[in-house]
Amino acid sequence: MENIQLGLKENWKQFVLLIIINAFVGGMIGLERTILPEIAEVDFGMAAKTAILSFIIVFGVVKAITNYYTGALANKFGRKNLLTLGWVIALPIPFILIYAQSWNWIIFANVLLGINQGLTWSSTVVMKIDLVGEKNRGLAMGLNESAGYLAVGGVAFLTGWIASEYGIRPYPFYMGIAFAFIGLLSSWLFVKDTVHHVNAETTTSNLPKLKNVFWETTWKHNNLGSISQAGLVNNLNDGMVWGLFPILLASKNFDLEQIGKIVALYPIVWGLGQLFTGKMADHLNKKNMLFWGMLVQGFALLLLIYATNFFHFAILSVVLGIGTAIVYPTFLAAIADYSHPQQRAESIGVFRLWRDLGYAVGALLTGILADSLGINWAVGSIGFLTILSSIIILIRMQSNKPITMENNQKENDCISKKKVELLMASGEKILILDVRSSKEYKEQHIEGALNISVDKLQGKLENLKKTELIITACGNGGGRSTKAAQLLTEKGFNVKWLCGGTSGWK
User: Fold this and answer.
1) 271 and 208 in a common domain
2) Residue 179 predicted with pLDDT over 80
3) pLDDT at residue 408 above 60?
4) Total structural domains in the chain?
């Protein structure tokens, strides 16, 4: 078996390929984003908002269930196989949208689209997290979600423009035929499975396994449960924007081209913003990012009620996109932080089950409210729920740092750089043991440190002396260094781990 390394640079070719594939995944959603409500009214004479939004309800339910089973079955059937299957299911979708003679055919196309999105998007998410390992998860998710939602926004704009120039069918859907065939061939011929990367990370992970992945990710685990409820509410308001926003704009007498521009702004800003917010999630407090992102979304939705012209709606679409960009990669990075590598695919699947059920809940709730009380009531209610979700995060979500098996170590097991230097100066026999990979060690290390990676430490204990103080060091301290310290302590060595790791040793 080839040497498996974790990291963005180490796996950049597969990572870039998966980004391109996920752009095609997003493009399939973008086909419907602007013009499907228009097709419902113009081609099929539908007026009730609940009926029009039925395609989103069906899509959301099917995608949510598929998300869960994609995560649950990823280790058994392989990520690549599920990704390829998703593209096979996508092949008939654009043809059905082109030739549909009744709204039931549109509903059927969205059943297939839900399965396609659940299999393909879930697989690309999990595979990218597998490739990068512990570092740069936020950046990885930012790049993944950015590619997908930039494609959603770009294709939504293009379909709006094509429909205004050439009619709402068939020309806007020709792009979907290309997306499906290119996605299938790329996944089948060029993508490699990432199961070996999961196995490699498992040897160094110090996260405890969840007792019940479904229920703990759903609600019982304070952090995972807080993230899952926010994911549901986020997509609840996105379902409203997807289905009701074009109708709201049409009621304000905007033409199809103007609607396409405004509707496209939201996912484009959402997509571009994640190029920055994904990396921010690797460095900033994830709880704070989720709280502020949801709060910004909530107030943007409430202000939509008072918008009157193109400029107002455009600005609020941008603000809504910013709020969503803050939370979207952070959701997935945080779920990965709190899940053991062997349970990560399933935990992400559970999160994405609840998150994408938000599409269905949002479409159904806003459809009922819009039909009974009016569009403004529907928009305002969703805005209020989004603000409430941010408050749940603020109150219930705990520390940004995951609880690990080594977190119960005493505070004095961590030794500062200053204390190490004082001990060295006093003549104390000290060995600094760098427990990162050899590649990380070569890139940067503490002068004089011995390098034995934590996964190889058990077999190299003969290289260490029990008569000297061993200081274990990893990248930032508190992860692999504590795992190594725990192992060495059990074997009778005098050991402490370095506070701040090699990053804090300047």
Assistant:
1) yes
2) yes
3) no
4) 2
